[in-house]
Amino acid sequence: MGKMSDLDLQIKELRSCGETILEIAETLAGIFSSHAAEDTPPKAVPKEKLKTPAFEEVRHRMTVIAQAGYSAEVKALITKYGARKLSDIDPSQFEGLLKERTRSESRRQETMGKHSFLSASASHRWINCPPSARLCEEYADRPSEYAQEGTDCHELCAYKVEKALGRRVKDPTENLTYYSQEMEDCAEGYCAFVMEEVAKARERCTDPLVLVEQRLDYSRYVGIEGSFGTGDCVIVSDGLLHIIDYKHGLGVLVSAEKNSQLSCYALGALDLFDGIYDIAQVSLTIYQPRRENVSTYTMSREELLAWAKTVLAPAAKLAYEGKGEFKAGGHCQFCKAKANCRKRAEYNLELARYDFEMPALLGDDEVAAILTKADELVSWAGDIKDYALQKALSGTKFTGFKVVEGRSNRKYTDEDAVAKAVEDAGYEPYEKRLLGITAMSQTLGRKKFEELLGGLVYKPPGKPVLVPESDKRPAMNTAINDFKENEEDNNYGKDRK
After folding, report:
1. What pLDDT, on the 0 to 100 scale, is given for residue 48?
2. Which of 163, 287, 447, 452 is most exposed, with the fewest beta carbons within 10 Å of its own?
3. Measured between alpha carbons, how far is 123 from 118 in angstroms, rounded to an integer?
4. How many folded domains does the chain comprise?
């Protein structure tokens, strides 16, 4: 590209930015204008210059206002024109609609930057165990390297999507603490998935809205001010609202089906854009690349609103008031009080009624009952140990226990000095090992790896694992199933004779 073309492109970008800024400024000026300003007659415009605004232009202006925190005012304005949604308004009224001036006390400004008490990410817990919301307030946040790694990857994902959309954004890579090739691959895959969904949205309407790291306030649906979360990606189009959430975690497989976190985000997006766009269905997607998990759940707008009314709002009221019953279960995993919660202890200690009998002495139903709790029991025991260790290090004495120095392995103080000393003595200090598949793929690149080594790689069958029936993996053929199949084959042969 020549210097003149480069300059021309820069000028176009500046003009575009300037137009956007002026548009937002004009919109906000209208919102905050006084009654006196409203009474001032508008400047006369020659009739020949007047034209009916396009529907997309009007929708864009209404979207800007809604994103500024005035979705309620937008809905009121649409209602004022005798419609439930923007598309129902006669195009001849668009000019008057755009000239409307609204005044507002912005709730968004009041809550901006504040912590969300009933956070969407913790909704699965406080919906199932309402009093845990107030209980967790007593515990300080304990950041972990896993959480920071997830934050880094979210930042990288947001950058790649914004860039793919043609927006001017700064590459955050050099400032990411846990950046790796794996993180890069995960973010690239996520971006490709999002852009595929954007392409589908563009087939449904000419001006879909794509929001990245969007603040979504669902206070109206829970009845508690300052209830909000941040949606990784929100795609709004006629007919469909799509919420996409990235999960970097490797430990827990997350499903989109009736996912309360994403449902809260969807409610926040509905509060902003329902009526501006004709939303009939809501899709929730979990993108979890390290578990090879892309899960999507779709429901009607009415189903979502019914859930908000019958499940979310009642639980939120109890949680805010610190009422309701404590309840233990899978939702305890990320609870701050999980280590010393009495209800969780009671839940897990129910296994003590079996008096640790040998498994062979238990009935199949009893074994099944234990299996449903075994993983949680192990997790709970680990949490108890971690909690007790931290308390002991702080000076608490537990009867029958003491803190000692654990075992450790010898390490070199200076590996370079060790290598030199061994080489000087005439020995080889390094062992030669074949790179693992992941490392080899990163070294060669995916395409070259498949070209050179595709025929030299195989995946052996995994070790049998007993899992709940809800697991999406197909069941293995056990010995008894193989026996039954052989018996059926033999009987089939006899019947043919």
Report:
1. 45
2. 447
3. 7
4. 4
Please list the rounded mean pLDDT of every run of 10 residues in the chain (497 residues). 48 54 54 44 49 67 62 67 71 65 39 64 86 78 81 94 92 91 93 94 89 91 87 93 94 89 94 86 95 93 95 90 81 74 69 56 72 70 74 81 79 91 90 83 85 88 75 70 51 48
CA quadruple 380, 381, 383, 389: dihedral, nearest 10: 160
Q: What is the largest CA-CA distance in the chain?
A: 100
Q: What confidence score (pLDDT) does residue 312 get?
A: 93
CB 74 within 8 A of CB 31: no
pLDDT of residue 478: 64
Burial letters 212-242, b for 16+ CB under 10 A, else e: bebbbbbbbbbebebbbbbbbbbbbbbebbb
H or E element that contains 294: strand 293-300
Same-domain status, 232 and 249: yes
Same domain flag for 122 and 33: no
- Residue-by-residue DSSP string for 172-237: -GGG-TT--HHHHHHHHHHHHHHHHHHHHHHHH-SS-EEEEEEEEE-HHHHT-TT-EEEEEEEEEE
Whether residues 156 and 36 fall in one domain = no
- 153, 183 in Cβ contact below 8 A? yes
**Same structural domain, 52 and 138:** no
Residue found by looking up tokens 């794996």 in the block? 182
For residue 483, being part of any structural domain is answered with no
Closest by CA to 329, choosing from 285, 283, 375, is 375
Q: Distance (Å, rounded) from C-alpha 10 to C-alpha 159?
A: 21
DSSP three-state, residue 301: helix
The reply to whether 69 and 155 lie within a common domain is: no
Identity of residue 288: Q
Ranges assigned E (strand) in 51-115: none
Element (DSSP H or E) covering residue 305 = helix 301-307
Domain span at residue 246? 115-330
Same domain, 158 and 256: yes
Residues 6+ apart with CB under 8 A from 217: 107, 108, 111, 227, 228, 268, 271
β-pair partners for 214 = 231
Q: What tokens were used for 174?
A: 């050099």
